[in-house]
């Protein structure tokens, strides 16, 4: 059966761009909620008198909620629709921001962070799924990359807000408005974008693939006609037929669909899981969760540490824009390979730099020229990640699975990603106590392994229709 007709008729309209942007706002909240803890780590540790291990858990606990949210997002999306599920994510994120900002104890804070993590996990699955399903094939990579752009903008916004609030108060642990410490306001301000996200997703249409799965064919045609400007009835009928065939409607998607001959799962599911795991095991979120603490610990002032962190997030935003421009021209796989190689080199350089750190009465000191080499290496590392593993993994997870299992397979892969994120984030304080050269050397090793994995196991999906994806 040919898919050429519908592919020719699809157009990248302004409406599909705006709809994708609304859905990707969930990624903004994803980035904000996960990175906001960066500026609050030291203040929270002092406020509640936490050990290194307890600090690691307080920082990373939201990721357990994210794994839970990602796990259930697929079944919820298949049953109730992509749009309704995005609204649920917005509600969780808004409630969490309010609760965390007003927390009265560490366990109370952990509870609200887990609630927010559930919202983040749901958003991390639904946004790329929805964008992939609503987009024309020839620009799906660029539109799918909007999720990562939104994530890095959310990270930038949270780190900028952290720096501004801390500087305004004279420190993250100092009181600001209404007697609340600055670190509490770092959480509270996230209520605003969560409410905006919830309002905007009320105006986006349901995914045509979900509508076809539910037998609502007229509505699916209307969405294809209005969003992708498909005016030819034969093209519309052919596209609907393609979707129906790929979904196999007599079959209700479930976790059992993912079973296969290789260690119990389909090969394509293992590829998705390992992409997710390697995205985290190269240590990127150590930079975005602990960088202020890290730079402060090696001799930079709190204000300079915040400034360095904000500058790093700006670099992340800029290279993500480059990735969006390249993804549908160069392809997913070549960018992943370049990213893995670059991260291996820069992480190795950071390990070397921190091996020259000297102990002082206040902690550590990184002497010249190693302090500047470490700064340059850290930012180059972010460049290579932002150009490749940051956006490319989300693009691939949104499009690489067959239609019949896409939402559930993405949920499993995203859950694996959050669990991997939790492991890396929770263990970093203890690894740092062993030694920063050991920690960054470990992440460099995973970057090398990720290169081998991509070279051998990842298939290029540039320009393919979703209906052409097979397991």
TrEMBL record:
Membrane topology designation: Multi-pass membrane protein
Reaction catalyzed: D-xylose(in) + H(+)(in) = D-xylose(out) + H(+)(out)
Membrane-spanning residues: 12-32, 52-73, 85-104, 110-131, 143-165, 185-204, 264-290, 305-327, 334-358, 378-397, 409-428, 434-454
Keyword Repeat: no
Pfam families on file: Sugar_tr
Recorded GO MF terms: transmembrane transporter activity
Location of this chain's protein in the cell: Cell membrane
SUPFAM superfamilies, per the entry: MFS general substrate transporter
Coarse class of the protein's main subcellular location: membrane
The Major facilitator superfamily (MFS) profile domain, residue ranges: 19-462
The entry's keywords: Cell membrane, Membrane, Sugar transport, Transmembrane, Transmembrane helix, Transport
Keyword Kinase assigned: no
GO CC terms in record: plasma membrane
Similarity-based family: Belongs to the major facilitator superfamily. Sugar transporter (TC 2.A.1.1) family.
Protein name as catalogued: D-xylose-proton symporter
UniProt source species: Lysobacter dokdonensis DS-58
């Amino acid at each position: 059966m040919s898919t050429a007709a519908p592919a020719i008729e699809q157009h990248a309209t302004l409406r599909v761009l705006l709809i994708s942007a609304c859905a990707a706002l969930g990624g903004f909240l994803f980035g904000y909620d996960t990175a906001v803890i960066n500026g609050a780590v030291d203040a929270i540790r002092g406020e509640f008198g936490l050990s290194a291990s307890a600090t690691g858990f307080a920082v990373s606990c939201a990721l357990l909620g994210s794994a839970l949210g990602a796990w259930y997002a697929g079944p919820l999306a298949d049953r109730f629709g992509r749009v309704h599920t995005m609204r649920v994510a917005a509600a969780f994120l808004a409630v969490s921001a309010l609760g965390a900002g007003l927390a009265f104890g560490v366990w109370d804070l952990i509870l609200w962070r887990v609630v927010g993590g559930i919202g983040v996990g749901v958003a991390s699955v639904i946004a790329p799924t929805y964008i992939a399903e609503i987009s024309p094939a020839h620009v799906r990579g660029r539109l799918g990359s909007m999720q990562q752009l939104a994530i890095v903008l959310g990270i930038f916004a949270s780190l900028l807000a952290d720096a501004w609030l801390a500087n305004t108060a004279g420190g993250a642990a100092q009181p600001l408005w209404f007697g609340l410490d600055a670190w509490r306001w770092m959480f509270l301000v996230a209520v605003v974008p969560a409410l905006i996200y919830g309002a905007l997703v009320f105006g986006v249409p349901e995914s045509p693939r979900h509508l076809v799965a539910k037998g609502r064919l007229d509505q699916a045609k209307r969405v294809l006609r209005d969003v992708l400007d498909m005016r030819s009835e034969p093209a519309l009928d052919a596209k609907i037929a393609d979707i129906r065939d790929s979904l196999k409607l007599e079959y209700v998607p479930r976790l059992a669909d993912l079973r296969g001959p290789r260690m119990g799962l389909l090969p394509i599911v293992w590829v998705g899981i390992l992409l997710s795991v390697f995205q985290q095991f190269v240590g990127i979120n150590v930079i975005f969760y602990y960088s202020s603490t890290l730079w402060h610990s090696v001799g930079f002032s709190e204000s300079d540490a915040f400034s360095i962190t904000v500058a790093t997030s700006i670099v992340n935003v800029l290279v993500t824009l480059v990735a969006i421009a390249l993804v549908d021209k160069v392809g997913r796989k070549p960018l992943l390979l370049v990213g893995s190689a670059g991260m291996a080199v820069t992480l190795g350089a950071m390990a070397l730099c921190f091996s020259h750190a000297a102990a002082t009465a206040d902690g550590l000191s990184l002497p010249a020229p190693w302090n500047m080499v470490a700064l340059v290496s850290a930012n180059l590392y972010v460049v290579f990640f932002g150009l490749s593993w940051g956006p490319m993994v989300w693009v691939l997870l949104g499009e690489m699975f067959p239609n019949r299992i896409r939402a559930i397979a993405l949920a499993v892969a995203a859950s694996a990603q959050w669990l991997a994120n939790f492991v890396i984030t929770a263990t970093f304080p203890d690894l740092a106590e062993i030694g920063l050269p050991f920690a960054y050397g470990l992440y460099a090793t995973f970057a090398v392994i990720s290169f081998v994995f991509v070279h051998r196991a990842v298939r290029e999906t540039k320009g393919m229709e979703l209906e052409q994806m097979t397991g």
